[in-house]
Write a structure and sequence with these properties.
Blueprint lengths: L2 H9 L4 H20 L1 E2 L6 E2 L1 H29 L14 H5 L4 H19 L5 H15 L1 H12 L3 H7 L4 H26 L1
Antiparallel strand pairs: 1-2
Length: 192
């Protein structure tokens, strides 16, 4: 059960306006996560993947994906919401660059996380860790496919687009596995 599902069960159905507010606030959270970077070697890691997964956990697959899509629409419109903006360009020109597939992958991560949460696979820390790892890995499917258009397939693709991020992704999955069950328990207590 997602965090929003818990809220709806305790408080009744949510309105379209409430859902719209959640999507807008969540898109802003994606922007903040893009600008917050942890200086890991060899590549600094943003918190975008963790937040995209968290949106799936919190809002479910549909609203989680809608929030990430709203974030992407802001970027497509030219707002400097992405990790490399404005210094590496803005708008569609940035999105069509080497990281464009990873941006699309954030939508997939929210959908995967939300779907697996709704399927009941996040019972406990181990289940939550597994879901976070699978959702995080789903970012790489469109990410690596898109990046291959710039650098080709082969070992170089994995060295540039996967290997440097594994440590950061495992750390983010552990954070998710520890934080999300605790948040869920707190919401359960609050909702009575």
């Amino acid at each position: 059960m997602t965090f929003l599902d818990q809220w709806m069960r305790a408080r009744g159905e949510t309105s379209l306006g409430f859902n719209l507010m959640l999507v807008i606030a969540s898109a802003m959270l994606m922007t903040l996560s893009a600008k917050f970077q942890v200086p890991l070697y060899p590549v600094p890691v943003s918190m975008q993947t963790l937040v995209a997964i968290g949106l799936g956990f919190a809002l479910g697959p549909v609203l989680g994906a809608a929030a990430v899509l709203a974030f992407l629409l802001q970027g497509a419109a030219g707002l400097p919401v992405f990790a490399g903006t404005p210094q590496n360009g803005i708008g569609l020109s940035y999105m069509m660059g080497p990281t464009g597939g990873y941006l699309v992958g954030f939508v997939l991560a929210a959908v995967v996380a939300g779907t697996l949460v709704r399927a009941g696979l996040t019972r406990g820390v181990i289940g939550t860790l597994a879901v976070a790892l699978v959702a995080g890995a789903s970012v790489y499917l469109p990410g690596l496919l898109w990046l291959s258009g710039f650098i080709g397939f082969g070992t170089g693709l994995l060295e540039a687009g996967l290997y440097p991020f594994i440590v950061g992704d495992v750390i983010k999955a552990v954070i998710a596995a520890l934080a999300f069950p605790a948040i869920g328990r707190a919401l359960s207590r609050l909702s009575g």
